[in-house]
Amino acid sequence: MIKSTENLKARDIYLNQLIAFQDTESVKVVTGIRRCGKSSLLKLMQKHLLGNGVASEQILFMNFESMEYRGMDVKAFYQYVKERVLPDKRMYLFFDEMQRLDKWEDAVNSFRVDFDCDIYITGSNAYLLSSEYSTYLSGRYVEIKMLPLSFKEFIDFHGYKVSNRKTSAGEVKKRVYDSDGEPIVWEELYEAYMHYGGMPGIADVGLVQDRVFALLDGVYGAVVVRDILERERRRGQRQITDSVLLRKIILFLADNIGNNTSFNSISNTLVSEKMLEDRAKQGKPAIQTISAYVRALIESYMFYEIKRFDIRGKEELKTLGKYYIVDIGLRNFLLGYRDVDTGHMLENIVYFELLRRRYDVAIGKIDNKEVDFIATKDEEKIYYQVTEDMTSESTRERELAPLKLVPDNYEKIVLVMRTDSTASVDGIKIQRVIDFLLDE
Q: Do residues 325 and 417 share a domain?
């Protein structure tokens, strides 16, 4: 059944990726944290199909979060779809939260073989695309990695518009307007984004803290209970059974976004700060235990790990990577909003914006200094430093110093919230964060 798509907001960055692979052999797999918009994306794709000559009878949508399909095994799933396939017609099969069904890959592979169909699935856990499944499909799938709203999408979802305005000096600046065409101070919207994050559902409940945090509480609970603890039980494994330890690790990672982190430092800090004092008799958590819990959080798309790269040695470093949380609103829900760590929060926002633009991202190490992000895509490479303020000379020198050491000629950019000049320095571009976030 196709539900109404009337009130869906556009997510063109992802929809265009699906359209690009429409009617190809590849299974289209949309992954991402709970409630980041995957189900809505499938509905947007269905709307696109209906608007381009596909009959509604050719579209089958199943959401495995629904009780309607609870208890269905893989054979019943195959039979259910088979009975609805139209002869001599191409079918478009949409399966939401596919990881809820054990051995689903057997049925999906059979659909590919037995029917004339185009398949789209979503999942809220990276286990969906485990090495076993990847091998099973032999590369016949394409992954669309979905994230919560960008700042630009956040503005659009809340009814504001962005346009360019040329200043008297000939410089083009971004301006934000409300529905009546009145200009809005973009810093106020950025502050709201920094505070509440980019979960799409926020546009429905409004920018009211109690409502937003109730929504984020639901996201957090779904990730922890359904995508981690419950999944462990379904898999018959016993690595992740301690919900209290899991929460403590979540709080640690949320509190340390953008900091160099190791499994050993997590364990030591939890013990030294007595965050695990009720487990004193059990001793310090083993490193492999911490590793399993962190891996589960990464698989659930709640946290993303970023590795360090030695720019001179041209090799990935195995130690002291960093973690960023997928939605800054989730961090504020967990820890409470604190305006003393806005620098790392800004880094967090820029990191995910680079991922949205489909860059591979690493931290750069050069001598004893660090480049915040190295963003690469195909033959393109850009070095980024991210800072809140560059009005003082000392801050300017500190942020420019690592980029000046980089020996190649790829583009180098400092992204800054507040600056008295955007003039380039020694070939290094100074760019306002707002212009970067609102860039097309």
A: yes
Query: What is the tens place of the pLDDT at every residue in 340-387?
Result: 789 999 999 999 999 999 999 999 999 999 999 999 999 999 999 999
Instruction: Give a yes or no: residue 180 inside a domain.
Output: no
CA dist., res. 16 & res. 267, Å (int)? 43
pTM exceeds 0.90 for this model: yes
20-47 mean pLDDT:
96
> Which residue is associated with the tokens 């999944």?
231
Tell me the two tokens of residue 255.
């509190």
- For residue 304, the surrounding DSSP H or E stretch is strand 303-310
Tokens of residue 294, six digits = 């962190």
| Closest residue by Cα to residue 311 from 427, 413, 426, 404 | 404
Q: Rounded distance, CA 117 to CA 24, Å?
A: 9
How many degrees, rounded to 5, is the angle at CA 160 between CA 157 and CA 164? 125
Cα–Cα distances in angstroms (integers) from residue 152 to residues 72, 297, 384, 413, in the given order:
40, 27, 20, 20
Whether residue 150 lies inside any domain: the answer is: no
Token reading at 205: 């409940």
Question: Which residues constitute the domain of residue 62?
Answer: 12-145
Neighbours of 182 (CB within 10 A): 8
Q: Which residue has the tokens 């009211």?
A: 208
